[in-house]
């Protein structure tokens, strides 16, 4: 199945039969000391929800932390006093997206940081609504890593502001967080991205914008322009497990 798309005066074709999944399944990675992802059969009187245990169906409970157990997408409700759910805030699911690869720099006594200068150097002059950051080196270790207590790389708030200034609404990256693992609760990149500088003040916030963390972009996906489909379940939370999928775009004459 192929579709035709137009963007900024150019025409493209995408093959929907060739998706490029950049999500990590729940339970393969872990961060921020979250509990492990767990599934267990429902037990009720003489019923056990497991075919292996004699039930006609599998009927499982799930225990998970969206932020700590795998690829997830979050909205501004992650940092606001008033409850905001991703399902309520995001109503569009397809975007043109730039995939960029970069190597964080060592600053601040050993922190690995994506600075504004590093980001500018790899980004095209005109950014799309979505930007997908792949950090280098790009080991498959990212698919099964426990980041807790490891102070993984993060995005400097000036780099985040650069994206906001260029009207990027959806940021995806292969790290546990856009902010430092432990930063005394400042969360400068989160606040800069959503323009929420006081947790009660939302008048000028970017409520329809999202951050997706803990993705994995395989090496065979080249830097460039793609169609992004951002999928997630309808959960009444600030964040939800998600499945970002890319489609290669072929320019049409």
3D architecture notes:
The chain is mainly β. Helix content is 11%, strand content 32%. The protein contains four helices and 18 strands. The strands form four sheets. Strands 1, 2, 3, 8, 9, 12, 14, 15, 16, 17 and 18 form an eleven-stranded mixed β-sheet that branches. Strands 10-11-13 form a three-stranded mixed β-sheet. Helix 2 crosses helix 3 (157-165). The protein starts with a strand and ends with a strand. The mean pLDDT is 95.
Task: Please state the overall shape, judged from the principal axes of the Cα atoms.
Answer: globular
The H-level CATH homologous superfamily of the largest domain, spelled out, is Putative cyclase
Counting helices, strands and paired strands, the structural category is mainly beta
Count of domain modules: 2
What does the average pLDDT come to? 95
What would CATH call the class of the largest domain?
Alpha Beta
Which percent range fits the helix content? 10-25%
- State the separation between the terminal residues, measured CA to CA: 20 Å
The largest sheet, given as strand count, sense and whether it forms a barrel, is: 11 strands, mixed
> Which fold name corresponds to the CATH topology of the largest domain?
Glucose Oxidase, domain 1
Q: How many distinct beta strands?
A: 18
SSE pattern, N- to C-terminal: EEEEEEEEHEEEHEEHEHEEEE
From the 3D coordinates, which CATH architecture of the largest domain would you assign? Answer: 3-Layer(bba) Sandwich
* Number of H- or I-type helical stretches: 4
What proportion strand? 25-35%
Output the radius of gyration. Answer: 19 Å
Enumerate the spans where pLDDT stays under 50 for 5 or more consecutive residues: none
């Amino acid at each position: 199945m192929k579709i035709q798309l137009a963007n900024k005066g150019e025409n493209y074709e995408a093959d929907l039969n060739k998706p490029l999944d950049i999500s990590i399944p729940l339970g393969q990675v872990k961060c921020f000391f979250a509990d492990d992802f767990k599934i267990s059969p429902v037990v009720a009187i003489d019923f056990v929800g497991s075919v292996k245990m004699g039930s006609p169906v599998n009927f499982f409970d799930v225990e998970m932390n969206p932020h700590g157990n795998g690829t997830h997408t979050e909205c501004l409700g992650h940092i606001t006093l008033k409850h905001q759910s991703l399902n309520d805030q995001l109503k569009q699911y397809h975007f043109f997206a730039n995939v960029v690869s970069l190597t964080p720099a060592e600053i601040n006594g050993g922190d690995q940081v994506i600075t504004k200068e590093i980001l500018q150097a790899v980004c095209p002059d005109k950014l799309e609504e979505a930007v997908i950051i792949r950090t280098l080196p790009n080991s498959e270790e990212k698919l099964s890593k426990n980041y807790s207590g490891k102070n993984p790389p993060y995005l400097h708030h000036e780099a985040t502001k650069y994206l906001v200034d260029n009207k990027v609404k959806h940021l995806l990256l292969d790290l546990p967080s856009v902010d430092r693992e432990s930063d005394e609760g400042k969360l400068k990149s989160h606040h800069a991205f959503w323009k929420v500088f006081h947790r009660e003040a939302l008048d000028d916030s970017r409520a329809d914008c999202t951050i997706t963390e803990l993705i994995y972009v395989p090496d065979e996906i080249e830097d460039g322009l793609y169609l992004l489909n951002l999928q997630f379940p309808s959960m009444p939370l600030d964040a939800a497990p998600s499945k970002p999928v890319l489609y290669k775009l072929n320019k049409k004459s």
